[in-house]
Design brief:
The complex is a heterodimer. Chain A is mostly beta strands. Chain A has strands at 3-5, 10-14, 19-21, 24-26, 31-38, 44-50, 56-58, 64-68, 73-78, 87-95, 103-104, 108-113. In chain A, strands 2, 5, 6, 10, 11 and 12 form a six-stranded mixed beta sheet that branches. In chain A, strands 3-9-8-7 form a four-stranded antiparallel beta sheet, with no helix packed on it. A two-stranded antiparallel ribbon of chain A has the order 1-4. In chain A, a hairpin with a 5-residue loop joins strand 5 (31-38) and strand 6 (44-50). Helices cover 0% and strands 50% of the residues of chain B. Classes of the chains: A mainly beta, B mainly beta. Chain A binds chain B through residues 4, 6, 9, 32, 34, 36, 41-46, 49, 51, 90, 94, 98-107, and chain B through 4, 33, 35, 40-45, 48, 50, 55-56, 58, 90, 92, 94, 97-109.
């Protein structure tokens, strides 16, 4: 069965500093990979996704993630964080040949320090 | 375009009771998935409905059941509530399975507390 591991439950980082949220998945087949964000008291929103093609994907608010098949990773990065990035971030995976079930990691809480 | 809406937003039940949660999918979406998000955890897949039929189920007991209606709205029913059922229940709609976009559109959830 597929699984997603987010190694850090919480990541504190100073405002305007870079951040990396780590995600590893277990799968031997092609996959689709996602990062979802959950702001306080809200539902989840898609941040970015990898389906195929370029292994580097970007969001509209400056986040990027790189699909690394050999390391089965899909780490999320941002070169300079803002206080508004405070949220919980979930990495997720689904098999590339069917999308009937998306599996989520346990989440990483990004805490921006002033 | 109307997004995913869920009701009620909050509710409190006692052990042994039954609960029904409702979800209206986003316009143009015919697939609804339900997730349970316990405090401090990621969403856990309960089941998915496509064209009024169950299309995949996670590791949840049969007392978790669902329905999808012709207008693609959906219900999640939980019988014989247990304390561990306390969680945020998320509904997500999407294009049909096989559309290969993989994107879910989530509602804000129904927070269930079981006392």
């Amino acid at each position: 069965a597929q699984s997603v591991t987010q190694l850090d439950s919480q990541v504190p980082v100073f405002e305007e500093a870079p951040v990396e949220l780590r995600c590893n998945y277990s799968s031997s087949v092609s996959v689709y990979l996602f990062w979802y964000v959950q702001y306080p008291n809200q539902g989840l929103q898609l941040l970015l996704k990898y389906l195929s093609g370029s292994t580097l994907v970007e969001s509209i608010n400056g986040f990027e993630a790189e699909f690394n098949k050999s390391q089965t990773s899909f780490h999320l990065r941002k070169p300079s964080v803002h206080i508004s990035d405070t949220a919980e971030y979930f990495c997720a995976v689904t098999p590339g040949d069917r999308d009937d079930k998306i599996i989520f990691g346990k989440g990483t809480r990004l805490h921006i320090l002033p | 375009e109307t997004g995913v809406t869920q009701s009620p937003t909050h509710l409190i039940k006692t052990r042994g009771q039954q609960v029904t949660l409702r979800c209206s999918s986003q316009s143009g979406h015919n697939t609804v998935s339900w997730y349970q998000q316990a405090l401090g955890q990621g969403p856990q897949f309960i089941f998915q409905y496509y064209r009024e039929e169950e299309n995949g189920r996670g590791n949840f007991p049969p007392r978790f059941s669902g329905l999808q209606f012709p207008n693609y709205s959906s219900e999640l029913n939980v019988n014989a509530l247990e304390l561990d059922d306390s969680a945020l229940y998320l509904c997500a709609s999407s294009l049909s399975p096989g559309a290969n976009t993989g994107e879910l559109f989530f509602g804000e959830g129904s927070r269930l507390t079981v006392l």
